């Protein structure tokens, strides 16, 4: 196991009815900006619960944060926060809303051009405090310090993170997910699955605890993912899905192990260029990535085949192929396409995708730093 430091300051408040506890989590004199996406939190009653819990506090609502939150929209929220003298942010939504709120929290207090937080990875020394009410289990953003933001005009999608951008708290009420469309549930399962794989399917470092945690989470997703689509009001299923997605990216399973993230970087470029959902790009890239890099990941792919998919027969190569196929089949069972052609995208844009990777400095990705632009090209080609 590699050396590590693990610290996660986010308080998790889990369970049905826990939105009412917001009153105890936010300072009584806070001026609150509620950030959200579309109108679903109004129609499903979540916004009303939040507003009731805020009581007599001064609050405002900023809506319209996109599924891939854009710099342009978030800077409008920054302007509103300054205009209204906001001192606490409350994200109500899924990972995109929470990612966007992290950026707002940092940008409000940033000295300089806020785009530098993304383009130049400028240090974030301070951020406005914020909490979240999670309504879509997927990204783990409710319990980590990172985010990914798009710039419409530039065609960029870039990550950021800081010790200053952990949520103070996050409320996880599984009942808030009951009204989600099947597409969002499916995307959430795929997103969480790939988050785990990025931290698990690398190379062995005798991190038995992290491996077993990761394998347990992956198996849980294979069980509850299809159930979540079939039984949208099954509280136990939604509770397990929500908690799994949080644990997938709160730092725990990634402590002391090598991490990959090449699948995410290649996926980001597909989203920026073609507008696909984040999870859709992960489902496209991951099976291709594992196929192209099967030799460098051989030991962990064999472990993954046996422990997650119960594949124990056949040669090593046959077991690895079967595990990659099982992964693809699982995503497709979740109704998420796994090839570019499933989204009417062919190979014509591969050159543009590679050029964007080069522009963003993504020329030595992966746990070994050996995912060159040529390897990335092979992955995109394999994904067609």
Automatic annotation (TrEMBL):
InterPro entries noted in UniProt:
ADH_Fe/GldA, ADH_Fe_C, ADH_Fe_CS, BDH-like
Question: Is Oxidoreductase among this UniProt entry's keywords?
Answer: yes
Matching PROSITE patterns: ADH_IRON_1, ADH_IRON_2
GO MF, one annotated term = butanol dehydrogenase (NAD+) activity
Which cofactor is recorded for it? Fe cation
E.C. numbers: 1.1.1.2
Q: Which residues form the Fe-containing alcohol dehydrogenase-like C-terminal domain?
A: 186-352
SUPFAM superfamilies per the record?
Answer: Dehydroquinate synthase-like
Family the UniProt entry places it in: Belongs to the iron-containing alcohol dehydrogenase family.
- Report what the protein is called: Alcohol dehydrogenase
């Amino acid at each position: 196991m590699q050396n590590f430091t693990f610290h996660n300051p986010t308080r998790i408040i889990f369970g049905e009815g826990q939105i009412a506890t917001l009153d105890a989590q936010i300072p009584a004199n806070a001026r609150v900006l509620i950030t959200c996406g579309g109108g679903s939190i109004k129609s499903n009653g979540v916004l009303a619960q939040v507003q009731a819990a805020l009581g007599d506090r001064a609050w405002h609502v900023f809506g319209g944060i996109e599924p891939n939150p854009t710099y342009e929209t978030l800077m409008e929220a920054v302007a509103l926060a300054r205009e209204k003298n906001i001192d606490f942010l409350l994200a109500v939504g899924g990972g995109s809303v929470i990612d966007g709120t992290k950026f707002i929290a940092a940008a409000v207090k940033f000295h300089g051009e806020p785009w530098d937080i993304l383009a130049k990875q400028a240090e974030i020394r301070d951020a406005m405090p914020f909490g979240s009410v999670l309504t879509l289990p997927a990204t783990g953003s409710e319990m980590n310090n990172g985010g990914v933001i798009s710039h419409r005009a530039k065609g960029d999608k870039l990550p950021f993170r800081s010790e200053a951008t952990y949520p103070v708290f996050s409320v996880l009420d599984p009942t808030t997910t009951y009204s989600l469309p099947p597409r969002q549930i499916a995307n959430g399962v795929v997103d969480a699955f790939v988050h785990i794989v990025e931290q698990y399917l690398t190379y062995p470092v005798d991190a038995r605890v992290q491996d077993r945690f990761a394998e347990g989470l992956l198996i849980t997703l294979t069980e509850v993912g299809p159930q979540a689509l079939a039984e949208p009001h099954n509280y136990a299923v939604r509770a397990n899905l929500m908690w799994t997605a949080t644990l997938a990216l709160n730092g725990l399973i990634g402590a002391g192990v090598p991490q990959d993230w090449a699948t995410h970087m290649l996926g980001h470029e597909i989203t920026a260029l073609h507008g696909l959902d984040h999870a859709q790009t992960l489902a496209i890239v991951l099976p291709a990535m594992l196929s192209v890099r099967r030799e460098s990941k051989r030991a962990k792919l064999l472990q993954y085949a046996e422990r997650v998919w119960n594949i124990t027969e056949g040669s090593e190569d046959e077991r690895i192929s079967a595990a990659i196929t099982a992964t693809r089949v699982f995503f497709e069972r979740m109704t998420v396409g796994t090839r570019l052609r499933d989204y009417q995208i062919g190979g014509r844009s591969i050159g543009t995708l590679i050029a964007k990777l080069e522009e963003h400095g993504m020329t030595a990705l992966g746990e070994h730093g050996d995912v060159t632009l040529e390897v990335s090209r092979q992955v995109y080609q394999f994904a067609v």
